[in-house]
Structures are given as structure tokens and as C-alpha cells.
Amino acid sequence: MIVDLMVHDFDFARWLGGEVQRIFARRSRNDQGMAEYAQAILRFKSGAIGLIEGGWAYPAGVFRTGFDLSGSDGLIEWNSDQPGPVHVLRASEAEDTGAVGLPISGITEDPYTIEICHAYDAIRTENPFDVTAQDALQSLRIALAARESINTNQPAIL
Which of 27, 29, 43, 130 has the fewest CB atoms inside 10 Å of its own CB, making it the most exposed? Predict the structure, then answer.
């Protein structure tokens, strides 16, 4: 599950936070071994910290994703269960407790369809891919380090 599912979250986190220095991960499974859930804490070389959760615990056919991104100027939240746009909570507006909506991204196609079309177009036109093979390799290294951390019960250094 970590290499199949969470690797995409590691890629996104790396895109946002830069190179990962170390990772500490935990995994749990139900008694039948069918439902699996994992958490990984990433320490980036920049000093930033990320928490990624992933799981194969939802009923068949249900896929959910989301993120919270916190910085010195505020918080951005997005969840695939919410029909509305991304919400930005600015630190300067904390007393107002109001959310500021941003426009919806405009994506009308399934993300997997967009991904396949991009790959096809890049191959056909010889344009560069948005995600490089090096990006994919680094994300895989993070996923494998997460598995190592789970197996050793220790942080894994990248």
C-alpha cells in the first residue's frame, strides 16, 4: 500500500517541501489483513515537517484524498469529499475565523485520464514530462524508506 498508494503523496510532498532527509512510519492492519493504514512523518532538508496518511481501509470503490498545508502566513485545506473549492485560512484573519474560497481548479476530467493524455502527448510530441523519471525514483526511495522504518521501528535516513 505504501509503494502503490502513498508514493503519490510522497511525490506531492517532495514537490512542496523539497528533498526529504528522514522518515518515520507506522502501519496497522485489521485481523484479516485486508484493511491497511499507515502514517509517515517526513523531515525535509529545509527543516519543514510533513505528515502523510494513507490507507486501504475504505469500502470498495471509495477513494478519498486531501491535504492541509500550513505556513507562516496561514493554512490551505482541501478534501475530495467537499464539493467546494480550496479554503485558505490566513494567519492575519485568524480573529475573524472566516474562510476565503478560491476558484475551483476547473478540472472536468478524471485525474487518471489527464495523466494518460499528458503521457501520450509528451511521447507523441517529444515534449518533456511534467514529472521526471528522477522525481519518480526519489518518490520510490521515500516509499521504500517508509517500509524500512516500519520494519525496523526506527526513522530511516534518505
Answer: 130
Question: How far, in Å, CA of 98 to CA of 69, rounded?
Answer: 17
What kind and span of H or E run contains 99? none
- Give the total number of structural domains in the chain: 1
Q: What share of the chain is helix, strand, coil (3-state, %, to 5)?
A: 35, 30, 35
Secondary structure element (H or E) that encloses residue 55, with its range:
strand 49-56
User: For residues 32 and 39, what is the distance between their CA atoms, to the nearest angstrom?
Assistant: 20
Chain centre to alpha carbon of residue 48 = 15
Based on its alpha-carbon atoms, the radius of gyration of the chain, rounded to whole angstroms, reads: 18
Model pLDDT for residues 44-96, shown as the tens digit of each residue = 999 999 999 988 876 666 677 778 888 888 888 877 776 555 556 565 554 54
Any idea what the CATH number is for the domain that residue 94 is in?
3.30.360.10
Parent domain of 97: 2-157
